[in-house]
Each structure stands twice: as structure tokens, then as C-alpha cells.
Specification:
Blueprint lengths: L6 H14 L18 E3 L5 E3 L2 H8 L4 H10 L3 H8 L6 H15 L4 H11 L9
Helix pairs in contact: 1-2, 4-5, 5-6
Length: 129
């Protein structure tokens, strides 16, 4: 069975993760031990989210093996998101997720990433704009 993940659900899950740990950071691309991979194997051999969007995709039910396989050969984060978010993908949602990922990759706290994305992209679910 394939889980259907909507862009609205992905944005909502990212917001939920950030609300739980707003000051969390992900090491920047230079310092991150896994580069820009969304998922990595944990010490117990299980897949876990390496980056914010990867964590959100896994929590929403994305198949971890398929996500890891696509992640390994994807040319961009957007292509990975579009592969797993099949219905309801709106341009502004993808732009918003891209800004969040860029801010996260630059080592900013997750709440900062959300704030910047909300300021730049109007009309995304959960935004005050």
C-alpha cells in the first residue's frame, strides 16, 4: 500500500516538528555527516530522518527504503519532494519547503527557517500571511 502525502500535510508536519523543537538546528551541508541526504541508517539499522523534510516525510508514512533510494540519485530536494508528494502540490508550497530547507542547510534554527519562509511566501497553510 502506498501512502498519499499531500503538500498541505507535509507543510503541516514540518510546522509540527518545528513547534516541538523550535531551536533545533541541523548541521550545515559542510558539517553534516550525511550531506544533504533526507534519510540515513541509524546505529540499529533503521531508517531515520536526517533533515527536517526527511523526518516529516517518514512521519507521514513515506516508504523509508524508497525514500532512501530516490534520495541517493535525486538531482534536487524538490524532485524528491515531488516524487513522494503526489497530490496537492502547489507552487508556493514547494517554494516554502525549499526556503525552509535552505535556511536549515545554512545551520539556522528551525523556527528561523519557518519564519523566513513565511515572510517570503504568502498563502501557505499555517502562515499568518
Amino acid at each position: 500500500m502506498t501512502t498519499t502525502i499531500t503538500a498541505t500535510a507535509l507543510v503541516g508536519k514540518v510546522r509540527e516538528l518545528v513547534t516541538a523543537t523550535p531551536e533545533a538546528t541541523t548541521p550545515n551541508l559542510t558539517d553534516h555527516p550525511h550531506g544533504n541526504r533526507y534519510v540515513v541508517r541509524d546505529t540499529d539499522g533503521q531508517w531515520r530522518g536526517s533533515r527536517l523534510i526527511g523526518r516529516a516525510l517518514l512521519e507521514l508514512g513515506a516508504d523509508p527504503d524508497a525514500l532512501a533510494e530516490h534520495d541517493a540519485r535525486a538531482l534536487s530536494a524538490a524532485s524528491t519532494v515531488m516524487h513522494f508528494v503526489r497530490f496537492g502540490v502547489w507552487g508556493q508550497d514547494l517554494l516554502w519547503l525549499n526556503i525552509v530547507q535552505t535556511q536549515e542547510s545554512n545551520g539556522h534554527p528551525w523556527q528561523w527557517a519557518i519564519t523566513v519562509a513565511d515572510l517570503r511566501i504568502k498563502g501557505v497553510v499555517g502562515s499568518s500571511r
